[in-house]
Amino acid sequence: MIRLDAHQHFWSIARPDYGWLTPALARLYRDMLPADLAPLLRRSGIEKTIVVQAAESEAETEFLLDLAMQNDFIAGVVGWTDLAARDAPARIERMARDRRLVGLRPMLQDLPDDEWLLCDSVAPAIDAMAHAGLRLDALIRPRHLPMFLRFAERHPDLPIVIDHAAKPEIRNGAIDAWSDDIRRIARETRALCKLSGLVTEAAVDWSLETLAPYVDVLLDAFGPRRLMWGSDWPVMLEGYPADALEPYADWCNTTARLIERVSRDDRGRIFGATAADFYGVG
Question: What does the DSSP 8-state code read for residue 162?
Fold first, then answer.
């Protein structure tokens, strides 16, 4: 089976797209490009990646598509466009002509309206995505999960994946409400979920035992055929001490330990086959 990282980012700080990327984020405030990631992939045996937008900008999506054209290990791009724009369906139709574009991601966690995705103004773009064969990456937090359930029920034909398991509040030990909502979504919709981003939601002194209850919920709720591993590189660096030697490899190895109770074939699905099937890449 292919080993595929279902969620990583690139950026160049010279670009004007990244308003959130400031010198205060010392570990992230530098160019993060394919040449930086490629050796990490080789050392961890990861063959392909899905690169995901990090800015509300079509220009950044074009930047990522150019990188995908230049680097064979990038299997697909999840980009961005304003789904509420009047001309969003036409924009989506145009963008989808580039087969390297496999999905779109609105940055829902940053929007002031937690129910924005349910707005009538967004519905034509969602229909256009489904028609174009694109997937939706849902960047949400636990407070969005009830809304997301309604959205997923409203659009059963749209392939959807929840990024970073909806960012459970691991740092605070909050699990019960998140678990209930996640389990209901898994039970009542066809949505998939990414096993990614957990270390940045935990305190920097996290351990295997810290993450295990959350991963167990995901395994029980979604199962290997609806769960996909992602690194969230380089954002995941924020979840490690500054002197950590190999955060990428460590997260890969940590995940392997967290899911060791499932079969070898099922581990292979989580580490690549689920994402390859979902995004239509190989």
Answer: E
In this structure, is the dihedral angle defined by the CA atoms of residues 73, 222, 256 and 201, taken in order, positive or negative? positive
Peptide bond before 247: cis, by omega within 30 degrees of 0?
Answer: no
Strands, E assignment, 2-159 = 4-8, 48-52, 74-79, 101-104, 135-138
Backbone dihedral angles phi then psi of residue 276, each to the nearest 5 degrees: -60, -40
User: Which residue carries 């392909």 as its tokens?
Assistant: 48
CA-CA distance, 64 to 74, in Å (whole number)? Answer: 9
> Tokens 């351990």 identify what position?
207
* Secondary structure class of 57 (helix, strand, coil): coil
- Average pLDDT over every residue of 67-85: 98
Cα angle 186-99-6, degrees, rounded to a multiple of 5 = 40
d(CA 252, CA 5): 10
Q: Is 49 in contact with 232 (CB distance < 8 Å)?
A: no
Provide the β-strand partners of residue 52: 78
CA–CA dist 142, 276 (Å, integer): 26
Residue 245 has pLDDT above 90, yes or no: no
- Domains of the chain (ranges; CATH) run 4-279 (3.20.20.140)
The tokens for 50 are 């899905």
Q: Output the pTM of the full model.
A: 0.97
- CA 269 to the chain's CA centroid: 16
CB of 139 within 8 A of CB of 108?
Answer: yes
CA distance 218 to 184: 12
